[in-house]
Amino acid sequence: MSAVLPEHPEFLWRNPDPRRSYEVVIVGGGGHGLATAYYLARNHGITNVAVLERGWLAGGNMARNTTIIRSNYLWDESAAIYEHALKQWEALPEELDYDFLFSQRGVLNLAHTPQDVREGVRRVNANQLNGVDAEWLNPDQVKEFCPIVDISPGVRYPVLGATLQPRAGIAKHDHVAWAFARTADEHGIDLIQDCEVTGFLRDGDKILGVQTTRGPIMADRIGLAAAGHTSVLAGLAGLRLPLQSHPLQALVSELLEPVHPCVVMSNHVHVYVSQAHKGELVMGAGVDPYNSYAQRGSVHVIERQMAAALELFPIFARAHVIRTWGGIVDVTPDASPIIGATPLANLFVNCGWGTGGFKATPASGWVYAHTLATGRAHPLNEPFALERFTTGALIDEHGAAAVAH
Amino acid sequence: MTVEPRRSPLDGLDVHREGVRLRELPFPSQVDLRLDPVGTAANRVAQSLGTPLPVVPNTVVVSGDRHTLWLGPDEWLVVGPDGDAPVVVRALREALGTEPGSVVDVSANRVVLELSGARARDVLEQGCSIDLHPRAFGPERCAQTLLARANVLLYQVNEMPTYWVMVRPSFAEYLVSWLLDAARCPRVGADRSGRGTDPSS
Amino acid sequence: MTAHRLPNGGRVDRAAPVRFTYDGKRYTGLRGDTLASALIANGVLEVAPSSYRGRPRGIVTAGVDEPNALVLVDGSLLPATTLELHDGLSATGRSGVGRLTDSTDSVRHDKRYVHCDVLVVGGGPAGLAAAQAAGRTGARTILADERTELGGTLLATKGFDLSWPGLAEFPETRVLSRTTAVGYYDQNYVVLAQRNTLWHVRAKRVVLATGAHERPLVFADNDRPGVMLASAVREYVNRYAVAPGQNVVLATTNDSAYQVALDLIAAGITVSAIVDSRPEPPAALVNQVGVEVITGSAVTGTEGRHRVSAVHIGPDRSIPCDLLAVSGGWNPAVHMFSQAQGRVRYEERIAAFVPDTCPQDLEVVGAANATYELAACLAEGAAAGARAAHLAGFGGGTAPELPPVPAESDSAHRPVWMVEGDETLQFIDLQRDSTVADIRRATGAGLRSVEHVKRYTTVGTGLDQGRTGGVPAIGVIAELLGASSPGEVGTTTYRPPYTPVSFALLAGRDRGELHDPIRRTAMHSWHVAHGAVFEDVGQWKRPHHYPRAGEDAQAAVLRECTAARTGLAMMDASTLGKIEVQGPDAGEFLNRMYTNAFAKLAIGSCRYGMLCRADGMVFDDGVVLRLAEDRYLTTTTTGNAAAVLDWFEEWQQTEWPELRVRFTSVTEQWATIAVVGPGSRAALTPLLPDLDLSAAAFGFMTFRDTVLCNGVPARVARVSFSGELAFEINVATWHGLSTWELVANTGATPYGTETMHVLRAEKGFVIVGQDTDGTVTPQDLGMDWIVSKRKDFVGRRSFSRPDTARPDRRQLVGLLPVDPDDLLPEGAQLVAGGVPLTPPVPMLGHVTSSYRSAALGRTFALALVAGGRDLIGRELLAPLGNRVITATVTEPIFYDPEGTRRDG
Amino acid sequence: MLLIPCPWCGDRDETEFHYGGQAHVAYPQSPDALSDAQWAEYLFVRDNPKGEFAERWCHNAGCRRWFNLVRDTATHQIVVQR
Ligand SMILES: Cc1cc2nc3c(=O)[nH]c(=O)nc-3n(C[C@H](O)[C@H](O)[C@H](O)COP(=O)(O)OP(=O)(O)OC[C@H]3O[C@@H](n4cnc5c(N)ncnc54)[C@H](O)[C@@H]3O)c2cc1C
Ligand SMILES: NC(=O)c1ccc[n+]([C@@H]2O[C@H](COP(=O)([O-])OP(=O)(O)OC[C@H]3O[C@@H](n4cnc5c(N)ncnc54)[C@H](O)[C@@H]3O)[C@@H](O)[C@H]2O)c1
Ligand SMILES: Cc1cc2nc3c(=O)[nH]c(=O)nc-3n(C[C@H](O)[C@H](O)[C@H](O)COP(=O)(O)O)c2cc1C
Ligand SMILES: [Zn+2]
């Protein structure tokens, strides 16, 4: 018999109609929007809040990601915020009273070339000094940690080692979103679905509210949390942001008896894979190069992905792909997010998480709630301001996150 | 002084498989030409080559034993017999005169494979996404494209069909392994009856 | 013959018995059977119990929509209902969960890329008619059908001649059986899975004739073995000549079950009753079947342990039977259509989602288009096929004559989404074991969207992707939410693949040796023969070092380094990118690209150059040779060869089309051998008879075109990446190996990339990508001298941005570990002395390169350190977990700072 | 797998092309004259519309020509060639 997942709560959320005005309106009911709502209530006592979602709650990238959680980022600024998130993850199942299957099974990032090794070692050292758990494994240790990886030297790109973050792992994506949503709802926050923001109500450079498919809604502060659609929303306010939206695909296999004990990622061979609790292999593919809002990508990306997967995991040959899908990720020039104020008063953005924002969900909510509550950045998101593109103080995570998940 | 013999990574490969033959054409001369197709140099070049440059994309003009392949709107590859390159380079540079453009001897820059036989198209079809059906491609057509995971310059020489598959030498061994592997596969999809073959076969 | 195999009929070959095992037991079936039909022929209907609740389950369908009868064959999880029987087949029943085993797969997979005018998906009557109409025009036509034989539902219909389309007569028509269209992508790109071949079809027009899937009915204990789709029962009886039961009750919401009843009766099977949800089913049908029709009713439950023994109709009535055939209506198979971005709408009359509009060049015909009468299917298919061919440029667009067929009836359906009973036993998705109760719980939790309900209950997420249970689930949600119709709820998203596709099939031939091209230089075989250990640089294999017997890597590298510094050594540098840049504006172009100037470089000279991206960060570097007034040869790093050529083309074509300059890649025209060391001049003198190699005659950073002693033309450059006297010999690739051998015969020690790295690091030369990481400017590298102040070039403006102009940026410095034996790991982080090592520890930078140096007799390193140049002379710490290495910051040059050695 | 019309070679599979993002973004005439903000705009900010988008492609594996076209980023339909 298959692994039985924990039962969901009897009740998740009300389905209220929007009120005329709120203290804070969050646009986008993905993980980040919902977490922000929760932390507005929890940390700042602000509950006069609406989350406006154009479709169904957490139906964007939150419904589509490969659920990898880790904090082993290279630069101090990134390590700080992702590690904050990881510490939150460790407490959240209890805090939110929701078993969302957070599993700290460890994440391996494989190295296949001397260059990969240098980068991996660099990251391990930086992580350790930043207080992020990290280890360097040699190929035999890789094999021990994940017995199905082919470490034989004869393969096209042999495994030369790996970084391991033992505290990293996965969680069940939509359960996470629902956990935040339920608690936000309990605090009286309105989660409003089928409510698309179609424009902004403004007085000069001051934003007063939003126009929606369910009528105008006024707010003291408005926070965008629309991931792949942020450019479209910003465009409604006349803002241009350094974002490009790309398709990112993922796929699952049929349910399989447990074969894969951890999470494995390889930038070089382009694979990342874990086995979810139900038993399906969950795999991500590369970003399609072109801009798109179509939530689907090209099949050759999947084919490459499978070829790469079989190089590392010959045992997967007879597994089947049963479903492929795509999300729309908002990519910044330095592969780091943008969190903070905009040139328009009362309008804030939290975007640019690209291919890797699921893991940041709690911290993103934490700092964004702070920003929306106080009008100022939290120390953790200060470096992630929009200005960095003007000054040049980028936080370039490309190296450490070529396929960042 | 005798010049050291040249060596190719394929070492004069010549193999037959069911319905196809794959062999290396050793050391044809190849000259890359870039110039403005409407400038006066184009006329001079045509004169010195003895034929006009092909201006229809992805076509070839053959004149004697020289084949001029269209590579781009201002780029051609002149393929000729071994030893022809210095002659062609000199002639083309002269024809180019002071007009902008470039002439480069690239004879060693690509290995030329010849794939021929009844199943040649079938073999290419396994890794090349352009339409090679006779209605879409044929003799004196060429294309720069991808074959498996290698960039190739593909040129159909005759109806048989015979193709030249021109590839960078560093990819040659890979591509040959790939082609031979593809040539090994029995023809599929010829099942017209609608009643399939035995699954165990 | 067993009792379950009917005495005659069917499309199985009674003369061809096939032996197989199922769950370890031996059985015999017939050629033409599926595993499922063969099991039924042997009286086996029950399969593995359900995944989560362990309930007994039976075969439900006869096709791809099977939720229960899954089996493991050779490590692959497959539906028994589509698995063709073959001798020696050995299958184990599984309940939706596969098991991967480590047996290596020997099956070969490959791919095909084909183009056509008309692709017809589905070979039922509609598809056959379409293929015939298109094929006869001469249009390149492909007909793909997932089944073993063409005919679709006609295979389950008695007495229909399937040969009429005569497709074999059209030379440009290709019939692909056992071929499933699994994915429909942009611009009519359709991927077909045919056993071990994956077809990629680019079609001008597509006709989708994918038929319809029958829906089950939802009632208590509807998962009991012996509850089967009516169409499946018909297919088992007519196509396979097996009887899944002897005493059948039919439950239906539409006309189609009546034909099933007639066929069963004709086969000698008892039909006890038909339970029809409609108060007034067509009288003609009722009269024709001649069995009891219980109208306006629905089945509410079943009895039996491992097999249905009776069905309940409401609280009062129970009818004994051993098989319950159900038809809850039909779902047009809109999967392909939806994947093609087609929109569906809900059609009340047949209670189903049907194709509406689609942006791609396709048409949907037959049952897939909710046309359920055979004659209409044929006509629709033929018209669409002719139209498609016409639009692709073939034929006049008129459809051919069609075979006459008997009239059928298709009156309105009356769906039954929910009935009385224990909702925890009313199964919606058999594979996921989810029930009406689960859906009620989901809607009770506040969920309104079908997508939420799917994720809350996992309905439709199994191998069959809700092909049977999907729409009933929507019906139940609609009722629970009080929606006006299932149309208001809508469907979940249809996604590829339509049916599961193995990883191996998607990977195709790109495995093992063919996974990714291995690029080899002309000298590769020599390197192999001389024991080189290789490293992967991009797709290239480059010798990393050449260990001799008994040597480890470190010893080999020290030896190679010593040879280069004190004697004679050689390296294969062929992988460096090379681009000929020609035209009157070549110099101006290079001036705009490189940070330093090239327009005035003398002919016959070389100059090192650096490229930045527009953001001012170092992108690539290399030596540029001026061949003639209007010709340069630029070299690039191995990894960036293609990127630099693309970069040049992009700027020239899109920004400066007025510049008269053109580029030609000559990377592989040339093989390159670096001959290095104080002994190089003497060693090369006999090899280069036409050249005066003296420093005076052949100055540093110049080159000569010459002929080697063996008659091979060569270009020799005096460039040095090691600081030693060095010559770089370039010959045509086909002379690479022999020239290498020629040099090797002088006694030169071959060295690999690691030695090259050590030698250049001793001189403080950077490696782009190792000492830089996309965040480093030339100034950060201490290379202000290479940044022209007099001209603009790509990236220049970025140097004056506030952050790029900061004095405390990370700068390249040298490091000497205090203990000369300590080797700093590359990637070690550096911190100031005296800071407590409790996280978070402020970091100043990291070690980019680190080696043991034979020349220095000690270790040394290069590092990027914040404000590093101001720290020269100070000590920094590299904390490495359990130990700390202390190192002194130095200038990033360790060997021969005056550059006295390069002239020999 | 998009089918991209190369103005020279005709329709080819997406895999033969390199994507170049938004079209018609010219390199500034005199970068020195720009403020840091304007330079940042040139470096990093590109349109990202949902709908028709004029974009650049290069037929990398073919004729190596750069060209522009208009594609709908919501439907992937290639609307006109420009
Ligand atoms: C295939 C894939 C794999 C991934 N894998 C990982 C991984 O392994 N690990 C990881 O950390 N990250 C991963 N990510 C990234 C991660 O999913 C995202 O960074 C993250 O989910 C983005 O934040 P979000 O949840 O708020 O976004 P979303 O869930 O996309 O939320 C944005 C919401 O805004 C709504 N919206 C948009 N416009 C409007 C409007 N006008 N009005 C109202 N609402 C609007 C959308 O409908 C949507 O629900 C992956 C992403 C994808 C696509
Ligand atoms: N009376 C009714 O209510 C009713 C309902 C449905 C169908 N029908 C009957 O069914 C027939 C419908 O004919 P038709 O031609 O439209 O459909 P069909 O079901 O006869 O044929 C469809 C064919 O397409 C194949 N197929 C489906 N998806 C595929 C894919 N992705 N790739 C490859 N093959 C695929 C199927 O296996 C099948 O062989 C008619 O005879 C009609 O009378 C009747
Ligand atoms: C971690 C993870 C696991 C998933 N597991 C399954 C699965 O077992 N079966 C399935 O059909 N889909 C699975 N999905 C995919 C969803 O069904 C769905 O495709 C995805 O949420 C995107 O939504 P869409 O396809 O409706 O656009 C999974 C998705 C994720 C992110
Ligand atoms: Zn082209």
UniProtKB/TrEMBL annotation, chain A:
Keywords for this protein: Cytoplasm, FAD, Flavoprotein, FMN, Nucleotide-binding, Oxidoreductase
EC number: 1.5.3.24
Domain Rhodanese: 23-68
The protein's required cofactors: FMN; FAD
Predominant location category: cytoplasm
GO molecular function, one term: sarcosine oxidase activity
Localization annotation: Cytoplasm
GO biological process terms held by the UniProt record: tetrahydrofolate metabolic process
Coiled-coil spans in chain: none
Enzyme class: oxidoreductase
Entry annotated with the keyword Transferase: no
CC annotations in GO: cytoplasm
Recorded catalytic activity of this chain's protein: sarcosine + (6S)-5,6,7,8-tetrahydrofolate + O2 = (6R)-5,10-methylene-5,6,7,8-tetrahydrofolate + glycine + H2O2; sarcosine + O2 + H2O = formaldehyde + glycine + H2O2
PANTHER family linked: FAD-DEPENDENT OXIDOREDUCTASE DOMAIN-CONTAINING PROTEIN 1, SARCOSINE DEHYDROGENASE-RELATED
Family statement drawn from the similarity comment of this UniProt entry: Belongs to the SoxB family.
Protein name as catalogued: Sarcosine oxidase subunit beta
Organism: Kutzneria albida DSM 43870
Automatic annotation (TrEMBL), chain B:
Keyword Oxidoreductase among UniProt keywords: yes
Listed GO MF terms: sarcosine oxidase activity
Keywords: Oxidoreductase
Major enzyme class: oxidoreductase
InterPro entries in UniProt: SoxG, TrmE/GcvT-like
EC identifiers of the protein: 1.5.3.1
One Pfam family linked to the record: SoxG
Protein name: Sarcosine oxidase subunit gamma
Species this chain originates from: Kutzneria viridogrisea
Automatic annotation (TrEMBL), chain C:
Family affiliation: Belongs to the GcvT family.
Domain of life, per lineage: Bacteria
Protein name: Sarcosine oxidase subunit alpha
UniProtKB keywords: Oxidoreductase
UniProt domain Aminomethyltransferase C-terminal: residue ranges: 810-896
Keyword Oxidoreductase listed: yes
Keyword Oxidoreductase: yes
Residue ranges occupied by any GCVT N-terminal domain in the UniProt entry: 523-791
InterPro entries per UniProt: 2Fe-2S-bd_N, FAD/NAD-bd_sf, GcvT/YgfZ/DmdA, GcvT/YgfZ_C, GcvT_C, GCVT_N, SoxA_A3, TrmE/GcvT-like
EC number: 1.5.3.1
Species: Kutzneria viridogrisea
PANTHER family in alphabetical order: AMINOMETHYLTRANSFERASE, AMINOMETHYLTRANSFERASE, MITOCHONDRIAL
Residue span(s) of domain SoxA A3: 426-509
GO molecular function, one term: sarcosine oxidase activity
Parts forming coiled coils: none
TrEMBL record, chain D:
Biological-process GO terms, alphabetical: tetrahydrofolate metabolic process
Entry-linked InterPro entries: SoxD, SoxD_sf
Pfam families reported in the protein's UniProt record: SoxD (PF04267)
Gene Ontology MF, one: sarcosine oxidase activity
Protein name: Sarcosine oxidase subunit delta
Organism: Kutzneria albida DSM 43870
